[in-house]
Amino acid sequence: MVELKTDTSIDEMREAGRVVAQALAAVREKAAAGVSLLELDSVAHGVLRAADASSPFLGYRPSFAPTPFPAVLCASVNDAIVHGIPDGYRLRDGDLLSADFGAQLGGWAGDSAISFTVGTARPEDVRLIETAERALAAGIAAAVVGNRIGDIAHAIGKVCRAEGYGIPDGFGGHGIGRKMHEDPPVPNEGRAGRGMRLKHGMVIAIEPMVIAGGMDDYYAAPDGWTLRTSDGTRAAHAEHTVAITDAGPRILTAL
């Protein structure tokens, strides 16, 4: 069931989204060659504490997971697509990092992700990240009252496929509100004009993921959480929490 949020509730979700944006900005600023993923998780945790917010990631255990997620930040490096667990790995010059973060504040959740390179950027990584961001922008532009979920999915997929990139099969965005994951699912590829009609008050997380090698396949790492590209090529991830309103899409996780 999809819960339609009131305008007041959307304003409250914006406050949770602001914490998410601040944490991702802090993570990006801290990330440099020699910095460990655990240090980045600590930075994100500090933003939560300062805002008196909690993490919907920490301790989260969906049906596929062998263990609860042990961190507040997902840190996925290079061929890791999503759900990377922060560990002692120290970033290297040229690494591609996708950082995914959520916050719970006042009973509402926010969820967002960014991808960026550490130090010297490879041109192919710049193109990959820019494509994920353009796909996100296209998905947001389609998130208007009267459109359908399929219009968002089609807009995202069209951008990604035009560049020859893969889209991880079965993974996409989701509704969000009191919980981090709610209905409806928001695929990253689909047919325009299909699916649930978008209404004022719906709030969704739109999150394109792209694989440089063009394949859609992935596998789960031994930790049971990290998803990696099957061909070993790099991946990028971009995400915003977006409210669908009569005035147009409202991004709740922007700075």
Low-confidence stretches: none
Specify Rg, calculated over alpha carbons: 17 Å
Query: What's the order of the H and E elements?
Result: HHEEEEHHEEEEEEEEE
> What is the terminal-to-terminal distance?
30 Å
Described by its quaternary structure, the protein is single chain
Strand order of the largest sheet: 6-5-7-12-13
Which range best describes the helical content: under 10%, 10-25%, 25-40%, 40-55%, 55-70% or over 70%? 25-40%
Keywords: Aminopeptidase, Hydrolase, Metal-binding, Protease
Organism: Streptomyces aureus
Cofactor: Co(2+); Zn(2+); Mn(2+); Fe(2+)
Domain Peptidase M24: 12-246
What is this structure's SSE topology?
Blueprint: H1 7-30, H2 37-51, E1 73-77, E2 80-82, E3 96-105, E4 108-117, H3 123-141, H4 149-162, E5 173-175, E6 182-186, E7 203-206, E8 209-211, E9 218-220, E10 227-229, E11 235-237, E12 240-243, E13 250-251
Antiparallel strand pairs: 1-3, 2-10, 3-4, 5-6, 5-7, 7-12, 8-11, 9-10, 12-13
Helix pairs in contact: 1-2, 3-4
Give short descriptive properties of this protein.
single chain, alpha+beta, three-stranded antiparallel beta sheet, 4 helices, 28% helix, aminopeptidase, metal-binding, Methionine aminopeptidase, initiator methionyl aminopeptidase activity, protease
Description:
By secondary structure, the protein is of the alpha+beta class. 28% of the residues lie in helices and 23% in strands. The strands form four sheets. The protein has a five-stranded antiparallel beta sheet with strand order 6-5-7-12-13. It has a three-stranded antiparallel beta sheet with strand order 1-3-4. β12 and β13 form a beta hairpin. α3 runs antiparallel to α4.
